Amino acid sequence: MHEVAHAVAARRANLKVDGITLWFMGGLTRIEGDGNKPSTELVIALVGPLASGVIGGASIGLAVLAQNSGWALAAGTLRWLGAINLLLGLFNLLPASPLDGGRVLHGFLWWTTGNRWLATRLAAGAGTLLGGACAIFGLFAFEKADPLDGFVFLLMGWFVISSSKREQVAGRAQHVLGDVHVSDVMRPAVIAPGWLTVGAFWNEWVKPYPEAAFVLERWGGGHWSGVVTAQQLAAVPPGMHWSVRAQDVALPLPSAPRPEGEVPLAPAQPALAIAGRPGAALPVEDHGATVGVVMAPDIAAMVARGTPVNRRTWAGLRPPASATSGYA
Fold it and tell me: What global pTM score does this model have?
């Protein structure tokens, strides 16, 4: 019910809920996307502990009634149910990611400072401290010959620390890519022959279009053999420039045909639409033509720098008209 409350609140905020996962350490509501307002995040985060508190309080009240009626077994069961739910609600309100309290802290800091990235860093830092404290308590339990509790607290510490790190990375991606479109992070696509050696390819294609993503044609036609950039070609040792082909060092593109229901990336989509799509190179299409490629190494470098990406004019990404035979 705690997780269902999160899911209902997220759906009322027009966010997509992918499902709920329950395991022995607790539960997780998988919400696609993120609220664009701190108030939305606060509501979604608070309803879970509130549901646990309501269930806990109601169980304690029913336990009192059962005890007064002489139903000792029912009273004991309800007391345990009430205590567990109240403990769950209170524990989840600890102000550290990935707990609900961490999301409350994040929403509050975002609301008061207006800086979402600062709120993410502080909430994730609090999560790291909480995870470290759990790990230390687990080691202390081992020292006191309590291996079961020690193992549980060590596992909890690992889970909290790793989850807070993931949230920090996701928050950094939101900070860097949150206000731009796919066209701002893609490379322009230039269709080129993949069977050329690296030396010939460099002279004929890389020099005129150094910032392009070269979508490579196969010798016999068919689907693309991959995509390559100037950086990948430059990594080939000089002694192999005339024996290694461009397609030999290319990154694979998603297989064709596209899986049923999958919508192709478009230049006007938010840049965060790339999240969750597998592959090191993602083609971008406009009216059925491949116009760009989003490269995973480029995105990783952007996120690592931590500086928000600037908007670009998509038309300015197109190669000159002289490349019509090699550009789609």
Answer: 0.72
